[in-house]
Structures are given as C-alpha cells and as structure tokens.
Amino acid sequence: MWKSIRWRATLIAVLTTVSIAVVLPSLTDSLPETWKKKMPKIHLGLDLQGGVFLRLAVEIDKAIENTTLRYADDARAICREKGIPVLGWQRAGVDGFSLKLPPGDFAGRALAVLKDELGSLDLSQGETRPDGATLIGRLKPAEVQGIRTNAVSQGVETIRNRIDQFGVREPQIVAEGEDRIVVQLPGVKDQQRAIELVGKTALLEFKLVDEGASIEEALKGNIPEDDEILYQRSVDRQTGRTTKTPLVLKKRALLTGDTIKTAKVNFGSERGGAHVSLSFDARGTKIFDRVTAENVKRRLAIVLDGTVYSAPVIQERISGGEAQITGDFTAEQASDLAIVLRAGSLPAPVKVIQNVTVGPSLGQDSIQKGVRAALIGAILVVVFMGVYYRFAGLVADFALIFNILFLLAGMALLEATLTLPGIAGIILAIGMAVDSNVLIFERIREEIRSKKTVRASIDAGYDKAFWTVVDSHVTTLITAMILFQFGTGPIKGFAVTLSMGVAINLFTALVCTKVVFDYINARRPMQALSI
Prior knowledge:
This protein has three domains: 2-49 and 360-523, Up-down Bundle (Multidrug efflux transporter AcrB transmembrane fold), CATH 1.20.1640.10; 68-142, Alpha-Beta Plaits, CATH 3.30.70.990; 200-357, Gyrase A, domain 2 (2-Layer Sandwich), CATH 3.30.1360.200.
C-alpha cells in the first residue's frame, strides 16, 4: 500500500513542479531571462492581445483569364510546331480564345492536334470565310471550377507560408465563402506592414516591351488596346533618390510566376548588390525557351505586382530555365522577395475589403472578464462541493487545483493560443473536473449504506465508477476532436482547452483524489467518512 502511495505522490509532485516551472513564464515577466527564453509560453489570440484582422477578396476572374491566356499561347506554339500557321488570335470572354487560321484544311488539322495536346479545353471550329477559318478554345467547366476552388485554397496556403516564414506567431488564415480569405494576425500592431505582407500578390509576369509605341503619346492617354503603361523603379545608391521610368508593355504575360521552382538571393549583378535568381519547372523552362527564341533582340520586362524591376534585351535563346530579377535591392529586400516568391505567388490578385486593428485595451478587457468568469465559476464549484460532499468535497477541490495547473502547463507546452472561446472551454473543464468525483462519491455513498467499511466503500466506489467516468470523458473528447478538426479559429481554441481539460481530468479524478484517501487510510483506517 505505502509503495503505491509513494509512487503516485511522487508522480504528482514531479508533475506539479514541472507545471509550475512551465506556467510561470506565461503569468509573469519578473523571471530570469534564460528561464523565459527556454520555457514555452501560452500565446494569446487576436481577441485577447489585439492585432490585425483582414478580410480579402480573391479576384478569381483574373486567375481564369491568366490560365486562358496561357492555353492560348500553348495552342499557338503547338500549331507552329506542327507547321500550322496562325494568322492571329483574340479573346473570347474570360475563359475562351479564338485562333484565326488560313483557308484550306488548316482549321481541321489544328482541331485534331490540339484535342490531343490540350485536354482541358473544349475545342470547336468556328465560322469559315474565304479569308480563313477560326478555331475556338474554351476552358471546360470542370477546369474553371478547379481554378475557382484552387484560387482560394492555394491563396490560403500561400499566405500561411509567407506569414510563417516572416515569423508572425499563431496566425489564423481561413477561407470564407467562395472568394474570401480571412486573416487574423495576433500581436501585429503595424497594420500597413500586415497588409503589405499578406496582400502582396507576388504576381510575377514576363511581358514584352512595345518598342514601337510612343511613350509621350501613352502618357497622354493614347495607349494601344493591347498595351499598358507601367513604371520601372530605380534607386540612386548615392542619394537614395527613387526615380520611376515609364515603359509601354504588352498586356499579355508570356510567362508567370506559377512556374517558379526555386528563388534565392545572389550577389554581383550588373548593377552591383543583391539580386534574385529564379529557376523554372519543366513547363516554365519550355515556355521560357520558346519566348526567348521568338523574341531575340527585344526587351523582356520582368514585372512584379505591376512594377517593372528590369527590362533586359534578349540577346539569345535561353534554354536553361533560369532568370534574374535585379532592382537595386538591399540584401534584406532581396531576401524578402525571394521568400515571397519561394512561398508561392498568389494564383490571383487579392483586394483588402476590410481591415481592423484590434487594440490591446479591448483584449485586456476580454482577459479580465474571462478570468473573472473563470474565478467565479471555480469558487461556486468549490463551495458547492465543500457544502454538499463535506470532507470528500474538499478532496475534490484539492484535485481541481491540480486540474487547472496541469491544463495551463499543457497549453504552454503545446504553445497553444488562448482565445476568448478557449477561456470558455477552461470554465467548462472546471465544471467537468468535479463531475467525475460526483459519480465516484455517489458510488461510495451507496457502498457505505450497504454497511461496508469506509476503506472498502472507497475502493469499491472508485472501481465501479471507473468505466462510467472513462466512457463519459471519451465521448466528450471525441466531440472536442471533431470540433478541432472541422472548426475554425475560435472553435479550435475552445476544442483545445476542452479536450485537454477532459484528458487531464481523468488523471486528477482517478489518481489525485484517490491517493489522498489511500494516504489517510494507510496512516489510520477511517471509521467514518464525511461525504
């Protein structure tokens, strides 16, 4: 008996010591710096410590349009490879395009070839005229739906990857509806920095410079229909002065950043300083090879989020699938750009439609009210157990202290995020912490009424209530796991604290309280039990 008591008491003592050491850094700052750095902490959610809340709208039509234009380029390239001349092309809505082919059997040949090569398109032959025929390509409905779904889901993952690499702690990034993304950044005070971090499209495009267009006319508003005017930004290293040079570019992007395989920082560009080196995947390498082969001696602009970083002349065909972005970067700027490109470009531009800064004062008020509610709940439970179950109730209250301590320690070890719903989960766990003891104590009462000794009644009460306690906790734990799996931010916070509270309650109810009764009986057998 004593050996079992010592083993359980030692386990409780060790867990208590470790829990106090783990929890203290989350409760006070007046600790040695080494202690605070080495120990994990409970992190507060957006509703408790303040931060930035963003709601983004994903411009899905732009993603569909970009995909359609890439297929149009692929279709023209395939036709050229097969010896089928293409006289021209034009858009046919957001999800379609048409190719103009010479008279003869060229349209039929192109239709047969492209059906084999481009399975994601619905292809059909259009109107035949004396000067030629048209071939119409349109994205299949399943492909369009896939782009719509991917634009949001990939956007969520891309933003999450960026935030993780930039070091923002415990963000919440979830899809909302068909074209919305909600971003919560706890602890972030600089709203503009957050918007730049999250909303940066990182839409990398390679576009040809229209050498024949007049910049003067373009600045006056006389821009050809297929052109646009963008600015190349450059910084004078001596004075730090920024200048913007207008360029007239073709609207159509010949290649986009979704084909990037790696992006890294290198030094020693033509301008000096840092630059970002890119390498493309197999598809991007093939397209880049074709683009450079077809446009030797023309300027190819590298455009990121509407800003021209460089516009070098293509001196020769580039078959290796590598390119560089130069733009008077500092090492830090080049590193940030490489991170964004490596984490992935957003499949479509996003627009911030709601941005809210949650002040720390609101979070502090929520913490105070949540803690007050938890304390009131705990006091009511403690008083009820002491009054109704007397000495046995005080033993249950003793276990409740360990339950709360172990719960906070578990959250700190997992570096979980505490939210307002999470505090609600703790309050519910406090109620459930004594629920198991209620079942056990009622069993003990029944055994005492049947004239058994106190020690036998206690042992029988714990044994007979064991599976009832386990069953009730397992069902609650399953519910909490389902909430965690399918819930979002606040729901997850509630599920984490509830599931941990339930699991810890099994230990405190079946071990911590039992060891008290066993210790008293081991010293002197109890003749009566106040219960």
